[in-house]
Amino acid sequence: MKRFSSLMACAVILLPLASANAAAPDPATLFEAKTVADRDGALAALEAAAPSDPASAYAAGAGEFFTALEILASGLHRHGFDSPQSFMLPLMRLPVPDNANPEPLTYGQFRAILTAFRDRLERSAATLGSVPADADIGMAIDLGRFGIDLNEDGQIAPDESALTIMAALARGGAAPDGAAPTLTFRFDRADGYWLQGYAEFLMAQADFWLAHDFRNTFDGSFHMLFPRAKLPLQDTLVPLDGGMNGSIFSSEWRFADFISLVHLINWQVVEPERRQAARRHLLEMIRLSREDWKAIRAETDNDREWLPGPQQKGASPLTGLEVGEDQVQAWHSALTMADDLLEGRVLLPHFRIADKGINMKRFFDEPKPFDLVLSITGPAIAPYLESGKILTGEEFDQIQRQFRGAGFLTFALWFN
Fold first, then answer.
1. CB atoms < 10 A from the CB of 407, how many?
2. Domain of life, per the record (predicted)?
3. β-strands 138-142, 184-188: how paired?
4. Separation CA 349–CA 89 (nearest Å)
5. pLDDT 10s digits, 104-128
6. Which position has the higher pLDDT, 207 or 397?
7. CA atoms of 108 and 113, how far apart (whole Å)
8. What is the pLDDT of residue 402?
9. pLDDT at 178 > cutoff 70
């Protein structure tokens, strides 16, 4: 009995050592999975290993980010989403396949989809944030083999790859013609900050919507996004043929409904803490972008970079652009400008008012009903007007000039 007790004691002592020495999960099983079941199994294994293994945490955070997109895409597909193919609705540009038998959609269900999307992004940001700054990360990922399930069939097909999705987003939501080419990047620690920053950016958008009651907008215009989901005005305003697959500006009925959408953005605040959170997410995105560039500048290699620094010469195979020192300096100026605006140190100008500007910190932290048209024309932003330093057009133009032909927006979407 004494010998048995001794053996048990040894086993208890050695068990943690055996667990610590166990091989960490292979991230490739996540990034190359062909089914949702295999992908989810790999993600669960990486999440379990994440507290003790930075590489697992890094891969799990990336997997959680893309499964957040899958939550959104699946919800949209379930209800027969038809992309408006417009940059003005950034959360609505995923290349979701047609659904011949969509389920009806209610306002409450749409809020639930947005909430689940936002909560998974929060989980991703927390997991990526747990990766130590000095972690040695290097994961080669073929974006043509890694994807999400857009049509809820349990499979991750080649036309659902990350590369295909990015190509569709670049085209405004339209699926590209033919298969996307193979494109492999080696993702390092800096790229973790980049992805975490994008999670914060998307959370800010979702929280801003969820902060308000937008039921009237949903009831009065969302049939342009879900033409067959039994929304209140479907039978009255959607063409009998469904009017599918048309961009806002190439379809008369969708353009009319887009005008309705803009007119109906007069939202009461129902969850003020979410509007306050949106500002914090944007500030965190700015902080992470600075950390990203600090890590990029410290890199001495030049191995299939997702976002290269000025010292890593050569055009990116993704964007065809090369990053120069002037552009990095201009980007940091843009970050400072955005930070100053969100903290209320600098005021946002309004074309009708010369001597006062909008305090964006108060816009988020002291939320009042959000009326888009009246914000543009002036009355709705009057409560946030203050005297002080106002951002000038010349300051922004000076930053824009540093990005030359490709333009500020192209680099901003890439740089995050």
1. 10
2. Bacteria
3. antiparallel
4. 24
5. 999 999 999 999 999 999 999 999 9
6. 207
7. 9
8. 86
9. no
- pLDDT(9) > 60: no
Instruction: Write out pLDDT tens, residues 244-293.
Output: 555 676 778 888 999 999 999 999 999 999 999 999 999 999 999 999 99
Closest CA to 76 of 34, 122, 109: 109
Edge-first strand order for the sheet with 212-213 is: 212-213, 266-269, 370-371
- Cα distance between residue 107 and residue 94, in whole Å: 20
Of all residues in the chain, the percent with pLDDT exceeding 70 is 88
Alpha-carbon gap, residue 91 to 231, rounded angstroms: 20
Residue-wise pLDDT for 82-100, tens only, equals 887 665 666 667 889 999 9
Per-residue three-class SS string for the chain: CHHHHHHHHHHHHHHHHHHHHCCCCCCHHHHCCCEHHHHHHHHHHHHHHHHHCHHHHHHHHHHHHHHHHHHHHHHHHHCCCCCCCCCCCHHHCCCCCCCCCCCCCCHHHHHHHHHHHHHHHHHHHHHHHCCCCCCCCEEEEECCCCECCCCCCCECCHHHEHHHHHHHHHCCCCCCCCCCCCCEEEEEHHHHHHHHHHHHHHHHHHHHHHCEECHHHHHHHHHHCCCCCCCCCHHHHCCCCCCCCCCHHHCHHHHHHHHHHHHCCEEEECCHHHHHHHHHHHHHHHHHHHHHHHHHHHCCCCCCCCCCCCCCCCCCCCCCCCCCHHHHHHHHHHHHHHHHHHCCCCEEEECCEEEEEECHHHHHHCCCCEEHHHHHHCHHHHHHEECCCECCHHHHHHHHHCCHHHCHHHHHHHHC
